Structures are given as C-alpha cells and as structure tokens.
C-alpha cells in the first residue's frame, strides 16, 4: 500500500479509506484512496450497504490474562444470499475508515454465487479504535497478526449469529475471503494461517512481501511511464531539487505545500503524486502535460505543480498534511488518524520504504532509507524499527506456503513487486496487462478514479485482459467452493 495505501505510494497501499477497497485509506503510503474521493464515492450511492453493525472484539489475542474488549464495526449485505446454504464472502477492510461494502466486482461475484457479503473494519481504524488516544504505547496491539485473529473471531461470531437467524444449531456455510493491497495480503495470510476457516482467498494486488528498501517501486513507475514521460519526470525532479536549494519556501508554496517544513516530506509528496497516476490507472494525467511542456520548452516545475494541485490534491483528493510529520504525531482519534496508524504498521512490521534507486531514479535521492528511519523515530519515538525479516519468516513473503489463494496484479502497478507474481501449485497468479491496469484492477476496473460501479472494465485499454482474469477467478472460486465438503458438523475446508 500509498503511505497514503501506503503513504500513497503506499497509500497507495491505500490513502485514508481509499484504495478503492471497501473504503480507502488516506495515508501517504501509496496504497489507498483519499478522503474526498471516498466521500464522493459514498455520496454517489456506490455502496451495497453502509448500515453499521457492531460486536465485541478481544483486544489482545495473544495474552492469557488480558481480557479487555473493544467495539469493532462491520457490515453485512444479504440481498444476494441463497438461504440457507449460500457462501459467505468476507471482504477485508484495511488501513482506512471502512464506510461500507463497495459495489465493485465482488458484488457481481456475490450475485453469481448467491453469497452473503460481510466486511470487518480493521482494528484501530475508523470507528474501531480500542483507545481514545493513539499514543505509541496504545498502538502496541496494532498489527497484522492481531488483525488476522480479529477476522477469525469475527468469522466464528458471524457464522454463529447466522445459524441463530436460520434456526439451526449446527452447520456452516462455505466462506471465501477477499482483499486488495494490504487487505489483499491479509486475505492471503488468513488462508495461510486459518485454512480451516475459508474455502479460499482472492489476494488482489496483495503486498505479501515486506521490503526494507523497496527500490522496485520507483523502477516500475519509470517502466510504466515510458521513455518520454520518464525523462520528463526525472528532469522535473532535478529542477525541483535545484529550486529547493535556492528558495525552498517559494517552491513549496508553488505546490501548495508550504507547511511541509522537512524537505524529505515535501519530496515524498511529489514522488507519490507521480506514482499515484500509474498505481490507479491514470498515467496520462501526469504524462501528457509533462511531455507536452518538455517538448515546448516550457517550465516543467510549473507544469508539474499544476498537475499536483489540480489532480493529486484536487481531483484525487490527497491532503498535503498526510505527509507532514507534525501531523503524524497527532495522537487524537480523528478522521485523519489512518495516516499515523498506517505509518506505525510500516515502521514496525512491513517497511515498504519507497527509496530512490542508486541509478536512474525518478524520485529524489532525499527519499532514502535514513529519511524513513528518521520519520519512524521522530513520530513514534526511540526503538521503533520494521523487522521485515521476522514478518517474512512468519508469513513466507512471496514464498508463502499456502493453498487455494488467487494472486492478481495490474501490469502498471508499482506495488506488484511486493506481491506474488509467479504461480505455484494451488496458488495461481495472474497479471492483468494493459496501459492503465493498476492496483486492484480485477476488482475495481480502470481507471480507479473515478470509480466504476461493479468494477466495470470497459475503460481499461485492454478490457479483454480484465475479463479473462475475472473468468479465471470465477472458475477458481467455483471449484474451491465445491470442494468445501458439507458434513454433519458443518463444512470441511480442505
């Protein structure tokens, strides 16, 4: 995920409730979508449901003596449910406020298979915060491991509740799990850790590989941009660095980012602004004006500033404060808390540090490893460090030893290099190839801004590639659901 679905770059492993997942995040991690985009999404009625449900969740699943609980929000959509034995689709929300169940391609699949759809908000995000303060000490229960147990506990809770509604004392429905980006990783990891609780998983643009220095992210942006656009982007970065040294205050004001006092924050903001266009299927938004300006001998910095303010901040809706370390220090529980929360996960578990490669980089060399480590220390205090080795040992990275997991990626998505792109037995992997195929294209269509109802693929430059991937996804779901054997005690998940 930007750090905004990882800082957008991330964040683009999100934005704060974005990525076009069940809602999108607005962190600047590169993974998720921004709040304004999310609000437009909600306002236009593009949710299957926004009716909140609640249940009591365990705060610490790994403590034998801490029995505290917190209220966790979830949603259910039963319009397509084939009573009583239809499947249940669990759609995982991630590093963002989860405002409902999106009307994307998962809804199409639910209709086809007669499935109920449920979605659980990630602990700490949105309205599912266990604490009134997000101090570093209070964030100690925020991790993917705890989140996976949340999903397992919720799965059992919901199945029991459904059985009561159906007036049956035993029996289970077949479950299938879905997620995009960081939730895509959670989807794969859920099948890995709890294979007895799901018939299979779809891991769309799933960032299953924790990476300390994620240079491949920037390299993919260059590849996706093509020669002319890449050259223009690199020249823009050089000019920005020169002017930053000459009069940084004036330059930052040009981009509407005068509040970003730390130069690294500012350069990260500019790098994510470019990456977002490729991550979410809108390459021409950044490439066309820069290439034209370069050919005409016009000021590239002015052209880029116009793109950043009109598209990245204006249309796409990313807040400049997302990149401000002073903002990230805010421990109050607010609508913007996802920024701080996702950075905590980045700084403790997964890293995904989108650093500039040593050669041929698009982003500034100021966005380096030291910048990320200093941010973690500055925002969360001493001793905070992402142990990616332990994370990859625990989950397996791209060598994940799971089964019945579908991995999908968009060919232009810089995040795909943290996903499993090589198929293995019982874990097929499909890359959807087209000019504007980005993050979660198989579920969201393209481009993802504006979002398409039911993930319509008609605007993809190669809609047939999307249809073929979706046909394979459907075949796997059909097969794996059929292999969940109904027994007297419920379903046998094999």
Write the layout of secondary structure elements.
Elements: H1 35-43, E1 47-49, E2 53-58, E3 69-77, E4 88-92, E5 101-102, H2 105-113, E6 116-120, H3 144-165, E7 175-180, H4 182-193, E8 201-204, E9 211-213, H5 215-225, H6 227-254, H7 263-279, H8 283-296, H9 300-315, H10 325-328, H11 337-350, E10 351-353, H12 369-380, H13 388-395, E11 405-410, E12 429-432, H14 441-444, H15 463-482, E13 485-487, E14 490-492
Parallel strand pairs: 4-6, 4-7, 7-8, 8-11, 9-10, 11-12
Antiparallel strand pairs: 1-5, 2-3, 3-6, 13-14
Attribute tags:
Rossmann fold; 8-stranded mixed sheet; two-stranded antiparallel ribbon; 14 strands; disordered N terminus; signal; glycoprotein; AB_hydrolase_fold; hydrolase; Serine protease EDA2
Give structural notes.
The longest helix has 28 residues, at 227-254. Helix 8 (283-296) packs antiparallel against helix 9 (300-315). The chain has an 8-stranded mixed β-sheet, with helices on both faces. Strand 7, helix 4 (182-193) and strand 8 (201-204) form a beta-alpha-beta unit. It has a single domain (1-486), classed as Alpha/Beta hydrolase fold, catalytic domain (Rossmann fold), CATH 3.40.50.1820. It has helices at residues 35-43, 105-113, 144-165, 182-193, 215-225, 227-254, 263-279, 283-296, 300-315, 325-328, 337-350, 369-380, 388-395, 441-444, 463-482, and strands at residues 47-49, 53-58, 69-77, 88-92, 101-102, 116-120, 175-180, 201-204, 211-213, 351-353, 405-410, 429-432, 485-487, 490-492. It is globular. It has 494 residues and is an alpha/beta fold. InterPro entries: AB_hydrolase_fold, Peptidase_S28. One of its GO terms (biological process) is proteolysis. Belongs to the peptidase S28 family.
């Amino acid at each position: 995920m930007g750090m905004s679905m990882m800082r957008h770059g991330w964040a683009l492993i999100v934005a704060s409730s974005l990525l076009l997942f069940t809602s999108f995040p607005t962190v600047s991690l590169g993974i998720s979508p921004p709040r304004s985009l999310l609000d437009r999404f909600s306002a236009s009625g593009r949710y299957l449901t926004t009716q909140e449900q609640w249940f009591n969740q365990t705060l610490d699943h790994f403590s034998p003596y801490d029995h505290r609980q917190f209220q966790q929000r979830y949603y259910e959509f039963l319009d397509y449910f084939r009573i009583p034995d239809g499947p249940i689709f669990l759609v995982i929300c991630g590093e963002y406020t989860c405002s409902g169940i999106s009307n994307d391609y998962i809804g199409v699949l639910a209709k086809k298979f007669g499935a109920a759809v449920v979605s659980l908000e990630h602990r700490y995000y949105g309205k599912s915060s266990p604490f009134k303060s997000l101090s570093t000490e209070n964030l100690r229960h925020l991790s993917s491991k705890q989140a996976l147990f949340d999903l397992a506990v919720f799965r059992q809770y919901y199945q029991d509740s459904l059985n009561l509604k159906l007036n049956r004392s035993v029996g289970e429905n077949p479950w299938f799990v879905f997620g995009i980006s960081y939730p895509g990783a959670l989807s794969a990891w859920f099948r890995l850790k709890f294979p007895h609780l799901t018939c299979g998983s779809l891991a769309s643009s799933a960032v299953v590989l924790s990476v300390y220095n994620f240079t491949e992210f920037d390299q993919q942006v260059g590849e996706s941009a093509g020669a002319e656009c890449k050259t223009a982007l690199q020249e823009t970065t050089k000019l920005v660095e020169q002017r930053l040294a000459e009069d940084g205050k004036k330059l930052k004001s040009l981009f509407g980012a005068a509040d970003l006092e730390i130069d690294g924050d500012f350069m990260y903001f500019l790098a994510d602004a470019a990456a977002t266009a490729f991550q979410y299927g809108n390459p021409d938004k950044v490439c066309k004006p820069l290439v034209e300006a370069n050919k005409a001998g016009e000021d590239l910095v002015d052209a880029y500033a116009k793109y950043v303010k009109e598209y990245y901040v204006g249309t796409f809706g990313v807040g400049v404060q997302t990149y401000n370390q002073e903002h990230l220090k805010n421990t109050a529980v607010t609508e913007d808390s996802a920024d701080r929360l996702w950075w905590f996960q980045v700084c403790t578990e997964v890293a995904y540090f989108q650093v500039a490669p040593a050669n041929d980089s698009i982003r500034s060399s100021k966005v380096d490893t030291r910048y990320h480590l200093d941010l973690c220390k500055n925002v969360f205090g001493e001793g905070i460090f992402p142990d990616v080795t332990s994370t990859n040992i625990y989950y397996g990275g791209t060598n994940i030893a799971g089964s019945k997991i579908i991995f999908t990626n968009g060919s232009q998505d810089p995040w795909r290099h943290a996903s499993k792109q090589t198929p293995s037995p019982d874990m097929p992997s499909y890359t959807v190839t087209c000019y504007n195929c980005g993050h979660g294209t198989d579920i969201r269509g393209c481009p993802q801004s504006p979002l398409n109802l039911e993930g319509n693929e008609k605007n993809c430059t190669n809609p047939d590639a999307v249809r073929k991937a979706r046909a394979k996804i459907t075949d796997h779901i059909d097969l794996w659901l059929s292999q969940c054997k109904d027994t007297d005690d419920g379903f046998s998940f094999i």
